[in-house]
Structure formats: structure tokens, C-alpha cells
């Protein structure tokens, strides 16, 4: 920025406003303040702004993408997009307010201020933001029963029960409700099938992300296959089928494997890590090995009991079934201070289980 020149000081032979001939302080373009103000506009903002909103999901179109926004957010964004300051302006300030006239119209009031060539300017804009109904891409696809992937939820060797199914399904909602949801992350159709549950999803990437989440959280395996469903611009259009097999067991279950009792400790890609119940020993087994395991005492059937008294090798607790006082041998990993024990009824008696399955 160049400041207003001071009078005629540095002009040989005197300087005058090129419009009115006034010799008061001049701008760098040789205008007096009055003429400079007449020819200068601090900010520009359109009287009318038009925007599209999806009539189905209420998301707004922003630079070719659709986002769900509040009224406050959308007004702020439209101001940012449309408000222009004179490029010589420094110390610009904006302050605005809006009111909702009806479903499709917001009145926006923008006040601007700033300094150009040492002179303070301000401006007031009144504008109407008008909203048209449209249909966003993902709603258009949903309406057309569009789907890119089928996910099959199954269990290894048995039927998935409804609690398990609800647990698996919840993890999908979590992905779809993430902070920056992808509009193609939707479920087109879902329902029970023999032995499990099938879903059609709007996006292959959603199916893959969910598959990885399921394996991480519940163990098991995912198999993918693709089928060609058509050709678009010479490129094959494929659909993904992703089949998830949940293991018949969960972390913390006690299983019989090779004539020993083991606790399911954690999941790995190739199969679970298991721990011996009666002494510390860890082992990795395959999913195929797991199919020859027998469930002895599920995590759900186990009980958490308070320790009433303890010595170095055993503890007393109240039997949760008949309220008698019982004694169990302390499990390995006991720190001598724990106030409770996890017990399972195994082969006709209560047995204390090793501490913190999955954590150690
Ligand atoms: Zn002038
Ligand atoms: Zn929509």
C-alpha cells in the first residue's frame, strides 16, 4: 500500500486531483480523498446467491461435493465463497448476521471494514441466499437400489445368534457415522439368510474397511470375490462379495484342544493365540485347528467373584450358585493383591482363570 501523499510536498510544480483539480492530499493514482472514495469499493458481495440442497438428506452442494451442514455453517461458507475485498485493502474485518425468511431463503447481512491507502472504509451488503431442491449423488444411487458390494456374515460351524449379529452390525454403524462420512457409505438392503445375515453396501471400500474391522475385533476370516455386472465406457463394472466367517468362539472362552484346557487370549491373522489354564504357556493355532476345539466354558458363563480371604496359593469366595464358601487355587499371574477372581465351572468344579485374557 502506498500512503496518501502529503500535499504538494514532493511534487515539483504542485499536484492536483486529476478529476476535480483539488490540491488536498492525493492518492497514489492522484485522486483527492473525495474522488478516491467515489471510485473505490471496499468489498463486493452479490445481492442473490443460489445454492442446491438435497431434498432427501438435506446435504448442501459445495464445489461439486455434498456435505451436511448447519444453517450457520452454510451461511459462513457462502460468505467466504462470495465476498471480495479490494486487493489494496489491509486490516479487513467482516461481521455478519442472517435470518431465515422461509424454508428456501436466508437474508444475509454482511458488514465490512478495512483500510485502503490509509483511509478507512466500510460497507454494508444485504443479500438473499436462495436454496433450490436437488438430489445428491448418493441419494440418487440409493433410490436406484445401487450397490457395489455384498457382505455375508457367517459363523464357522454354526448359526450366528442375534446378540452376535447385533455386535457385528454395530461396528458397521460406527464406520458410517464417522466424523467425515462418505456419502456412498450406505446400506441398500439387508436381511437374514440361512446361517447368517447378508447386506448390500453402496461402496466397496466400506465393505473392505468393515471386513478388516471385524477380523480385528472378533477374529475370523474374510474372503473376497468379484463378479462382472456390466461394462461402462469400455471398463468392466464389478461387484464385490465379501464373506466374513466369525469364529465359533470369543476372547476369554475356555476351549478343549489337544486334551488340554486353554483360554482364548487374542486374535491373529492366521488364528487365535491360546493360553493354558493350569500353567503359563502360550500357543498360536490356526483357524482349522480351532474347528477341532470344543467349547468348555464360554466367557459369558464365567463369573467374577470377590475374594473373601486368601493365602499364598488359594482363595475363598462365595459360590454364586448356592452361596456356600468355596476354595480355589489361585491362577498363575495372581499378584497377591487382587480383590476378585474370574472363575469358570469346568469339569465339575470351579476353577480360577488366569488374569486378564487378551491383555498379557
Ligand atoms: Zn478530486
Ligand atoms: Zn442426498
* Basic shape: elongated
Strand-pairing-aware structural class? alpha+beta
Strand order of the largest sheet: 10-11-9-13-12
Number of helices: 6
Distance between the termini: 67 Å
Query: What number of structural domains do the residues give?
Result: 4
What are the SSEs and their pairings?
Layout: H1 33-38, E1 43-44, E2 48-54, E3 60-62, E4 65-67, H2 71-82, E5 84-85, E6 90-102, E7 105-116, E8 119-134, H3 137-143, E9 149-155, H4 162-176, E10 187-193, E11 196-201, H5 204-218, E12 221-232, E13 235-246, E14 254-257, E15 260-267, E16 272-276, E17 282-284, H6 287-290, E18 294-297, E19 303-306, E20 309-310, E21 314-318, E22 325-329, E23 340-346, E24 349-352
Parallel strand pairs: 2-8, 9-13
Antiparallel strand pairs: 1-5, 3-4, 6-7, 7-8, 9-11, 10-11, 12-13, 14-15, 14-18, 15-16, 16-17, 19-23, 20-21, 21-22, 23-24
Produce a short descriptive summary:
The chain has 360 residues and is α+β, with helices and mostly antiparallel strands. The protein has 6 helices and 24 strands.
What would you note in describing this structure?
The structure is a single chain. This protein is α+β, with helices and mostly antiparallel strands and 360 residues long. The protein folds into 4 domains: 1-39, no CATH class; 42-134, Immunoglobulin-like, CATH 2.60.40; 145-218; 254-352, no CATH class. The chain is built from 6 helices and 24 strands. The strands form 7 sheets. The protein has a 5-stranded mixed sheet. The model is unreliable at 5-13 (pLDDT under 50).
Amino acid at each position: 500500500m502506498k500512503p496518501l501523499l502529503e500535499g504538494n510536498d514532493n511534487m515539483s510544480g504542485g499536484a492536483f486531483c486529476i478529476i476535480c483539480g483539488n490540491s488536498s492530499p492525493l492518492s497514489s493514482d492522484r485522486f483527492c480523498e473525495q474522488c478516491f472514495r467515489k471510485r473505490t469499493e471496499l468489498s463486493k458481495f452479490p445481492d442473490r446467491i443460489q445454492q442446491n440442497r438435497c431434498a432427501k438428506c438435506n446435504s448442501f452442494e459445495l464445489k461439486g461435493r455434498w456435505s451436511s451442514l448447519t444453517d450457520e455453517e452454510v451461511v459462513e461458507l457462502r460468505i467466504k465463497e462470495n465476498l471480495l475485498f479490494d486487493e489494496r485493502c489491509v486490516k479487513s474485518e467482516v461481521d455478519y448476521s442472517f435470518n431465515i425468511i422461509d424454508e428456501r431463503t436466508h437474508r444475509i447481512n454482511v458488514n465490512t471494514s478495512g483500510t485502503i491507502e490509509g483511509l478507512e472504509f466500510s460497507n454494508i451488503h444485504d443479500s438473499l441466499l436462495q436454496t433450490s431442491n436437488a438430489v445428491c449423488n448418493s441419494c440418487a444411487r440409493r433410490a436406484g437400489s445401487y450397490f457395489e458390494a455384498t457382505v455375508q456374515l457367517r459363523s464357522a460351524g454354526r448359526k450366528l445368534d442375534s446378540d452376535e449379529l447385533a455386535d457385528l452390525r454395530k461396528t458397521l454403524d460406527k464406520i458410517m457415522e464417522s466424523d467425515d462420512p462418505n456419502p456412498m457409505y450406505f446400506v441398500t438392503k439387508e436381511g437374514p439368510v440361512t446361517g447368517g445375515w447378508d447386506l448390500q453396501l453402496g461402496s466397496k471400500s466400506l465393505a473392505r474397511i468393515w471386513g478388516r474391522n471385524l477380523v480385528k475385533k472378533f477374529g475370523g476370516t474374510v474372503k473376497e470375490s468379484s463378479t462382472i455386472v456390466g461394462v461402462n465406457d469400455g471398463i468392466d463394472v464389478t461387484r464385490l462379495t465379501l464373506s466374513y466367517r466369525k469364529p465359533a468362539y470369543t476372547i476369554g472362552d475356555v476351549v478343549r484342544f489337544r486334551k488340554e484346557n486353554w483360554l482364548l487370549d487374542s486374535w491373529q491373522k492366521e488364528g487365535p493365540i491360546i493360553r493354558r489354564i493350569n500353567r503359563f504357556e502360550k500357543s498360536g493355532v490356526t483357524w482349522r485347528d480351532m474347528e477341532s476345539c470344543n467349547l468348555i466354558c464360554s466367557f459369558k458363563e464365567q463369573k467374577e467373584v470377590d475374594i473373601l480371604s486368601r493365602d499364598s496359593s488359594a482363595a475363598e469366595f462365595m459360590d454364586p450358585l448356592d452361596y456356600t464358601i468355596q476354595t480355589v487355587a489361585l491362577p498363575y499371574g495372581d499378584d497377591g493383591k487382587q480383590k476378585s477372581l474370574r472363575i469358570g465351572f469346568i469339569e465339575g468344579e470351579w476353577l480360577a482363570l488366569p488374569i486378564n485374557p487378551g491383555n498379557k
